Amino acid sequence: MYSYETKLRVRYSETDKMGYVYYGNYPQYYEVGRVELMRSLGYSYRNLEDMGIMMPVLNLSVRYLRPAFYDDELTIKTIVREMPSSRVRFEYEIYNIDGQMLNTGEAVLGFINSDTRRPMRPPKEILESFKQFF
């Protein structure tokens, strides 16, 4: 298993009239966590695109437990529990500053060859980056 945490502060524009983070923003927070997890392994999304790899979302689920509010500092914990293949499953846990879990989610992304638009296995070097945790 590999996990990575990143922090994010809720911006005013991300809240709704009730003062809660708008429900549709949580997948964007997941993306922040996912991008930073990959960066922690040495791969930015720009690197992946330069390698001819696209990673579209194939499946997404979200579970809302408690609201987050404007100016809250959130911790996004992103977890990969199994070695990637042609797909990789990311789990997410979002916490407030008090350590209360606010939200959980999961996204399954595919590795796609940008030239052929067909599924592919990730390059060996990406698998090697993950292998040390499994």
UniProtKB/TrEMBL annotation:
Keywords: Hydrolase. GO terms for molecular function: fatty acyl-CoA hydrolase activity. It is an enzyme of class 3 (hydrolase). The keyword Hydrolase applies. It comes from the Bacteria. CDD domains: 4HBT. It holds the Pfam family 4HBT_2. InterPro entries: 4-hydroxybenzoyl-CoA_TE, HotDog_dom_sf, YbgC/YbaW. Its EC number is 3.1.2.-. Belongs to the 4-hydroxybenzoyl-CoA thioesterase family. This is Acyl-CoA thioester hydrolase YbgC. It comes from Candidatus Venteria ishoeyi. The gene is ybgC.
